[in-house]
From TrEMBL:
One of its GO terms (cellular component) is cytosol. Involved in the recovery of exogenous heme iron. Extracts iron from heme while preserving the protoporphyrin ring intact. Keywords: Heme, Iron, Lyase, Membrane, Metal-binding, Oxidoreductase, Peroxidase, Signal, Transmembrane, Transmembrane helix. The keyword Oxidoreductase applies. It comes from Streptomyces klenkii. This is Deferrochelatase. Residues 233-417 form the Dyp-type peroxidase C-terminal domain. Residues 1-26 are annotated as: Disordered.
């Protein structure tokens, strides 16, 4: 269902103007060193004011998770090949009836400028929310995409890519149209919940009268440092999830995930971009958790303890799909998830899976409304997600414990240069 990695940190401080709320920028960490700073945090009042003043005059650099940053500008948008962060938000918007191409371009410029500032740890112009004053960028990424209907609303149907054809129906789908698709899509991720919410809030505010929110979903992953050593994450079924995800170092990775940079034709504006399939997948946890450990492992095809394939080895050992146990049965069952989803079982079809778990309370029958916010990235969904999902739909033993409740397909353009905005080649081309 999903897979992951880890990046470098940017500890360079930005020279920012003092802000109203105590004059502390997002790149400054409130007094964490020295007795005076500790006293200010505990005592409050005058001591708290003293601590804030001390930080303003002699700020200590952010370290660790808070200082890590991702570049907004570049050939590709951030949030695709980057490791999935601790907190994630997905949003879809519909353009207002009177908003056309010009209004959409102005919105994308506003959003791009805001995302660039936030990802660099800066305060966007006009932002007085104070939500993330103390924090660094915390690996924030903001990614933008266009849905099929966006091109109709902006009179750009001649530039709509063939790859944005509606996804086929799958037998396991129970899709809610109100939580699916949309004209515009935004993905926000960060390793700090307040930083992620701050970006979410500004994006929603800046939509203004141009676009209205269609749906929003929020998810989470394990916090960096929560395990003794870096390791592949687990999903809400308790399974290690992400072992065989394509890696940026793999031969052919760019060709499978990104639209070629020398793209020509009506969709040349997609050069360096990718296509995102977004699925909200509810896990039937009450049913799943009643299975024995042995049965759960057979459904997945891996040991739950360490993620090793049932054919033997360690987590990273390539599954031996031909291995037979002493009783004559396949070591990895014919309907095991890793067998059915394997590129070897799908003529090499692959995609980069980037997911967040979610929990939105409980349903009327007491079952948890929880599961996976699944995003699949690929250069062409007709060669990536669609053939794999068709195979899973027909023969995956795991499908009995899942419900696909929302879906969307979005064209995510390549990145932009300073002074430009995401989607400019489409909207001004």
């Amino acid at each position: 269902m999903a897979e992951r990695s880890q990046d470098s940190q940017d500890t360079q401080q930005d020279a920012e103007q003092p802000r109203k709320a105590g004059g502390v920028s997002r790149r400054r960490l409130l007094g964490t060193a020295g007795a005076a700073g500790a006293a200010g945090l505990v005592a409050g009042g005058a001591a708290g004011a003293f601590a804030t003043e001390t930080v303003r005059k002699d700020p200590a650099p952010l370290t660790g998770v808070g200082a890590a940053s991702r570049p907004f500008y570049g050939v590709h948008q951030a949030g695709i090949a980057d490791p999935a962060q601790t907190c994630g938000h997905f949003l879809a918007f519909d353009l207002a009836p009177d908003a056309g191409r010009k209004a959409a371009a102005a919105l994308m410029r506003r959003w791009s400028n805001t995302a660039a500032d936030l990802m660099a740890g800066k305060t966007p112009k006009g932002d007085e929310t104070g939500v993330a004053l103390d924090a660094g960028p915390s690996s924030l990424t903001v990614t933008f995409g266009f849905g099929r209907t966006f091109f109709d609303r902006t009179d750009l149907t001649s530039k709509r890519p063939d790859a944005l054809e509606p996804l086929p129906d799958f037998s396991a789908d129970a899709l809610d149209s109100k939580r699916s698709n949309g004209d515009l899509w935004v993905q926000i991720g960060s390793d700090d919940a307040l930083v992620a919410f701050h970006a979410l809030r500004l994006i929603q505010q800046q939509a203004g009268n141009t676009a209205r929110l269609r749906w929003q979903m929020s998810g989470f992953n394990r916090t960096p440092g929560a395990t003794a050593q870096p390791m592949t994450g687990r999903n809400l079924m308790g399974q290690i999830d992400g072992t065989n995800n394509p890696k940026t170092s793999d031969p052919g990775f760019p060709a499978k995930i990104y639209v070629p940079e020398d793209r020509s034709g009506t969709d040349e504006w997609m050069a360096g971009g990718s296509y995102a399939v977004v699925r909200r997948i509810r896990m039937l946890l009450d049913t799943w958790e009643h299975l024995s450990l042995e049965r759960q492992e057979k459904v997945i095809g891996r040991r739950k303890s360490d993620g090793a394939p049932l054919s033997g080895g360690t987590e990273t050992t390539r599954p031996d799909l031909n291995k037979v146990n002493s009783d004559g049965a396949l070591a990895i069952a014919g309907d095991a998830h890793i067998r059915v989803a394997s590129p070897a079982s799908n003529r090499g079809a692959s995609m980069l899976r980037r997911a967040f778990s979610y929990h939105d309370g409980f349903l009327d029958d007491g079952a948890p409304d929880a599961g996976l916010l699944f995003v699949a990235w690929q250069a062409d969904p007709l060669k990536g997600f669609v053939p794999v999902q068709r195979k899973l739909d027909r023969g995956d033993g795991l499908s009995r414990f899942l419900r696909h409740e929302a879906s969307g397909l979005f064209a995510v353009p390549g990145g932009c240069k300073p002074g430009e905005y995401v989607g400019q080649r489409l909207l001004e081309g």
